[in-house]
């Protein structure tokens, strides 16, 4: 029985891993759609990066998972030398097109896990809505290895929170429950204030100092067509397969048209997490096991 439990756990872990690899490859299936539909990030985020990480003219910045350049273009506009490592070939192609005016920005196609960093370290390792797709056993340690002492890791996460067209988001749950078996029954969006600040992964690493959080809330209004396009870029939606996804999007589109006048407003919480690389030799040590003192 003990063995059964152990096997189940291993199977679960394998499934999580398989799902991560499958889902992270979906974005590049329609890079033009992603480029057209996905919003960029608030300008204040780049201002904060300038202040805490010196992101600006001459900064050497490594970006993990640049997509089609949602953050890469504003970073290049601020004068950064950007090297972006992007898994998807089609995403990289569109990113290069968007970065055509910035000779100091380069996009290479590779999984970050497999990529060989140059010898010269970076000032900043940055990743927007992409860090969680990288192997958890690799992402923090390899980011640290790419940074100069005192350099900065900066990751951006996007949370879907309550606000905007609240009635629509309550009603749309019915479409999800009809078509997406993974949707928990009665799911509701949380207020931004209820979203926990979670910096454990980086803080538990001896290679980084404390994590600082910066948060930005904003509302974006979409027409029915624009909103359905955004949903078509979500990896978990794409994973439903087209006949199911089409039916679910028809349900959502009809709800927006019939009950919300063809327009809804979505609230996003964007969170920037920043920590500095501890200089070599000064890595943090955890508490000593009791009895060793
Ligand atoms: C949700 S998109 C984010 C794109 C863009 N940074 C943005 O903010 O919209 C995730 C991106 O990370 C890329 N990606 C996923 N896993 C990766 C990995 N292991 N190494 C490099 N890129 C990866 C995907 O191909 C995709 O372009």
How does this model look, in words?
With 293 residues, this protein is an alpha/beta fold. The protein has a domain at 2-163 and 188-219 and 268-276: Rossmann fold (3-Layer(aba) Sandwich). It is built from twelve helices and seven strands. The protein has helices spanning 2-24, 31-37, 43-53, 72-77, 89-98, 139-146, 166-171, 173-179, 200-203, 224-232, 235-238, 242-260, and strands at 60-64, 81-86, 105-109, 122-128, 147-160, 212-223, 263-276. The chain has a seven-stranded mixed β-sheet with strand order 3-2-1-4-5-7-6. Helix 4 links the parallel strand 1 and strand 2. Helix 8 runs antiparallel to helix 12 (242-260). The protein is globular, with a radius of gyration of 21 Å. The chain starts with a helix and ends in a 17-residue tail after the last strand. The model is unreliable at 1-6 and 287-293 (pLDDT under 50). It binds S-adenosylmethionine. S-adenosylmethionine (SAM) binds at residues 24, 27-28, 38, 64-67, 70-71, 85-88, 91, 111-113, 128-130, 133-134. One of its GO terms (molecular function) is methyltransferase activity. It holds the Pfam family Methyltransf_25. Residues 62-151 form the Methyltransferase domain. This is SAM-dependent methyltransferase. Keywords: Methyltransferase, Transferase.
């Amino acid at each position: 029985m003990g063995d059964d439990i152990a096997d189940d756990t291993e199977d679960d872990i394998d499934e999580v891993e398989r799902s991560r690899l499958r889902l992270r490859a979906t974005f590049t299936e329609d890079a033009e759609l992603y480029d057209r539909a996905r919003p960029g990030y608030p300008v204040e985020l780049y201002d904060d990066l300038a202040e805490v990480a010196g992101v600006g003219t001459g900064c050497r910045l490594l970006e993990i998972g640049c997509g089609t350049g949602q953050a890469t273009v504003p970073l290049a506009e601020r004068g950064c030398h950007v090297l972006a490592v992007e898994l998807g070939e089609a995403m990289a192609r569109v990113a290069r097109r968007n970065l055509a005016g910035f000779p100091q920005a380069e996009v290479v196609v590779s999984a970050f896990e497999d990529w060989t960093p140059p010898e010269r370290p970076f000032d900043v390792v940055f990743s927007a809505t992409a860090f969680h797709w990288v192997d958890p056993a690799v992402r923090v340690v390899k980011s640290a290895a790419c940074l100069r002492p005192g350099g900065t890791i900066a990751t951006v996460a996007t949370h879907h929170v309550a606000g905007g067209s609240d009635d629509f988001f309550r009603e749309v749950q019915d479409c999800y429950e009809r078509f997406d078996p993974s949707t928990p029954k009665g799911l509701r969006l949380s207020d931004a204030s209820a979203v926990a600040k979670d910096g454990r992964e980086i803080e538990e690493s001896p290679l980084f100092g404390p994590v600082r959080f910066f948060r930005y809330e904003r509302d974006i209004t979409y027409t029915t067509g624009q909103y359905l396009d955004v949903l078509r870029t979500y990896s978990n939606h794409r994973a439903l397969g087209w006949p199911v996804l089409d039916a679910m999007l028809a349900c959502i589109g009809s709800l927006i048209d019939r009950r919300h006048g063809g327009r809804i407003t979505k609230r996003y919480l964007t969170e920037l997490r920043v920590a500095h690389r501890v200089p070599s030799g000064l890595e943090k040590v955890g508490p000593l096991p009791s009895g060793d003192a």
